Structure formats: structure tokens, C-alpha cells
Amino acid sequence: MARIAEGALALGGEMQNLVGSSQKAGEQMRESVDYISHITQEMDQIDKEVEAIERLKSLDQS
To answer: How many C-beta neighbours within 10 Å does residue 42 have?
Structure first.
């Protein structure tokens, strides 16, 4: 009976470790998504600025 209890405690500890690892992976995933979102916003802003420059150039050539 004591061995079963020890095994259950060990299994519980392993499960806690897995949950902790899973939470950490989830946090890293959220950070990655946030970073990608930020980069995407910056790229969109650059595209808008390039379009504005191209419009100014076309007006200048007219």
C-alpha cells in the first residue's frame, strides 16, 4: 500500500511538472504571437509610407 502511495505522489509530481511546462510553452506562444503581430503592424505602416512616397513621386512627375 505504501508503494502505491509513493507511486501516486511521484505521478502527481510529474503531472505538476508537465502542467508547469505546458503553461510555460503557452506563455512563450503568446509572446511569439504578440511579437509577430507587432512586426506585422510595423510592416503595414512601412507599406503605407511607401505608398505615400510613390504617390508624391507620381505627383512630382506630373
So the answer is: 10
Q: DSSP readout, 1-60?
A: -HHHHHHHHHHHHHHHHHHHHHHHHHHHHHHHHHHHHHHHHHHHHHHHHHHHHHHHHHHH
Percent of the chain scored above 70 by pLDDT? 100
CA 22 to chain centre: 14
Place of cell 512630382: 60
**What's 61's DSSP letter?**
H
- pLDDT tens, position by position, 33-47: 999 999 999 999 999
pTM higher than 0.85 for the full model? no
